[in-house]
Amino acid sequence: MQRAIQERQEDVKIGWFERNVIVCIHISNSRICILHISTLVGKHCATMTVEALLNDAEILIVGAGPSGLVLALCLAKLGVTFRIVEKSSGPGQASRAIAVQARILEFYRQLGFADEVVNGGLKMERLHLRKGSREIAALQFGDFGKNLSAFPFVLSYPQDVHEKLLIEKLVAVGIEVEWNTELVDFADDGKRVRVTLRSQGVEEISEVGFLCGCDGAHSRVRQGLNLTFPGGTYEQRFFVADVEETGAPVQGDINICMGVDAFCLVFPIRSVKQDRLIGIVPKELADRENVTFDDIRAYVEKLAGVKVHKVNWFSTYHIHHRVAERFRVGRVFIAGDAGHVHSPVGGQGMNTGIGDAVNLAWKLAAVIQSRADASILDTYESERIAFARSLVATTDRLFQEIVGRGLGAYMFRNFVFPVLLPLALKFSSGRKTQFRLISQIRINYRQSALSEGIAGEIHGGDRLPWLGGLAGDNFEVLNSNDWQVHVYGEAQAAMRDIAANHEIPLHMFTWNAAARAAGLSKDAAYLVRPDGHVALADSKQDADSLERFLARFKIKARATSRSSK
Ligand SMILES: Cc1cc2nc3c(=O)[nH]c(=O)nc-3n(C[C@H](O)[C@H](O)[C@H](O)COP(=O)(O)OP(=O)(O)OC[C@H]3O[C@@H](n4cnc5c(N)ncnc54)[C@H](O)[C@@H]3O)c2cc1C
C-alpha cells in the first residue's frame, strides 16, 4: 500500500493506493469528505469524484473580499454554519477602496469593531480643488454629519488593511477562510445547491442550502446563473498609484487637481506621508500595454504638484458602470461587485457591497433558523438592486461631469464644483445633504414589501435616525442584531404586552428636541429590523398592526428562539 499525507494547519489530505483503486480523503475545518476514487484499468485511469460524506454548512460564501468577509462575520454572529472559500492564496495586497462610509461604520459598531477601524484610519477633513498650484475652492468636511451619525465623517482606511482586520475578526470567532479554493460549478435543484470546488488540483462536490456569490466583478456565480450585466465602460483608461511623495499642496487632505482634459485625485492613506493618486492615463499612452508609473511620472507630478519618491502600487484600469439583472435566482445570491460595479467617485463601490452583505445575512439567518417566512429573502434583491441602480445613475452622472469633455462637464468643473458646492457646504442644510448622499445613511427601503407605515417623517424602510449626545445613544441597543421596538416617549400597556408575548425587546427613549429634529414622532412605535432599518412605523402604537406585521412574515426574534430551545 502506498500512502501520501499532505498537511497544512487543520487541512489534511490522505490518499492511498490499493488493488488498483486510489482513494483520496480530505479533512478540512473538521469536515471529512471523500474526494476521488480512481480505478486503474489496464493503462487507463477512471476517476470519479464523490459526494461529501459529512457536510454541515448551510451556506457557501464564494470570495473573501470585503462583501464575502462581512457576510461571514454577520452570519457567524447570528449563529449560522457556513463555509467561505477564496481562490487566492491569501488576503488582497492592494489598497483599492479607501473610503469607509458612516453607514458601514454603524454596521461595524453592531458587530463590535467600529472603533478599531476608526482608530486605524484617517478622518478626511477638507477637499481642495486646484488648477495647477492655484486653489480655486476648498470644501470643509470635518464632522459634516454632526447629529446625523456617531461617525459624522469620511474615513480613509485602505482595503488591504481593512480585509486583514475582517479576517482577524473571523479567526477570533474560530472561522478560517479556505484559501486556494475555487468554486468551479454549481447547480440548484430547488432544495439544495450542489457545488463543485477545486483546491490545489483536487475537486470536491458538496451540498449547501444557499450559495452566495461575493466573487467580484467577473463573478463565476453571476455567469453560472446566466445573468446579464448591463451598463457600460468609460472610454478613458485610468491609473491608480499609492505613493510616498512630498509637495502635495495640503498634506492629509483630499485634493482634486484639474488640468485641461485631465484630473488627478490626491487622497491621503495610512499616514500623511503616503497618498493615493487617481487620474486619467494621457491620451497618447491610453492604448499602450504595460504602462508604468515612470511613463506618466512627469505628467502626474506636474498636474498634482507633487514629487514622488516611492511607488508602492501602480495599476491602470478601465472603469465600468453595471448592475446585474437579478441579485437572486432560487437559492443562489450575488452581492458586492458581483452584482454592481461603479465609478470611484464618492467611494461607494465597496461600501455598497458591504451593505448588500449585511442586508442578506440577517434574512438568510432568519429563514435558516425558522425565524421568518422564506418570502423575506425576496426583499434582498428588491431592496439592494434599487439602491445599486440609483447609485450607478448618480455617481456615474457625477463622474461623467468630472472626466467628460462637453459643456456640462465644463460648467461642472468651472462653476458647480468651485462655486456652488462650497457655498452649499457653508449652510448646515447643505452639509447635511452632502453627508447623507456620501455616507449612505440616506438609503431607504420604502418600496420594500417589508416596509409599512409612517410616523413623523420616518417611513417604514428608512434607516432609524441616530440620536446621540447627553440623552443616550439609541444605536447601542442595535448591537443585538435582532428585531426590537422603539418608542420615543411612553409605551402603552398593549404595546408592551404584544412585544413581551413575542419576546421582542421594547426600548423606551426620552422624548426630546433631538428626537423631534430627527423626524421621529412622540409616542409612536417603530419596529426596527436587525440591520437598523425601520420595518413598521406606527404613530398610534396599534398593537394589532404589530401583531399582523409579525404574522405576515412569521417573524420571531432571536431572543424568542434562544429561550424556546
Ligand atoms: C484599482 C481599484 C481602485 C478602487 N477604488 C475604490 C474606492 O476608492 N472606493 C470604493 O468604494 N471602491 C473602490 N474600488 C472597488 C472595490 O475595490 C470593490 O468594490 C470591492 O473590492 C468589492 O468587494 P467584493 O468583496 O464585492 O469583491 P472583490 O473585492 O473583488 O472580492 C471578490 C473575491 O472573490 C474571489 N473569487 C472570484 N472568483 C472566485 C471563485 N470562483 N472561487 C473562489 N473565489 C473567487 C476573488 O479572488 C476575490 O478575492 C476599487 C477597485 C479597484 C480595482
Mean pLDDT: 86
Proportion of residues in β-strands: 25-35%
Reading side by side through the largest sheet, how are the strands ordered?
11-10-18-19-20-17-21-24
Ligand list: flavin-adenine dinucleotide
Q: Could you tell me how far the N terminus lies from the C terminus, measured between alpha carbons in angstroms?
A: 49 Å
The number of helical segments is 14
Bulk shape: globular
Number of strands: 30
Write the layout of secondary structure elements.
Elements: E1 2-8, E2 11-18, E3 21-28, E4 31-41, E5 44-49, E6 59-62, H1 66-77, E7 82-85, E8 99-100, H2 102-111, H3 114-120, E9 122-124, E10 126-131, E11 134-140, E12 154-156, H4 159-172, E13 181-188, E14 193-199, E15 202-208, E16 210-213, H5 220-224, E17 231-246, E18 254-259, E19 262-269, E20 274-280, H6 293-304, E21 307-323, E22 328-329, E23 332-334, E24 340-341, H7 349-368, H8 378-403, H9 407-426, H10 428-439, E25 452-455, E26 458-459, E27 484-488, H11 493-501, E28 506-509, H12 513-517, E29 525-528, E30 534-538, H13 543-552, H14 558-563
Parallel strand pairs: 6-7, 6-16, 10-18, 16-23, 25-30, 27-28
Antiparallel strand pairs: 1-2, 2-3, 3-4, 4-5, 8-12, 9-12, 10-11, 13-14, 14-15, 17-20, 17-21, 18-19, 19-20, 21-24, 22-23, 25-26, 27-29, 29-30
Helix pairs in contact: 1-4, 1-7, 2-3, 8-9, 9-10
The structure holds flavin-adenine dinucleotide.
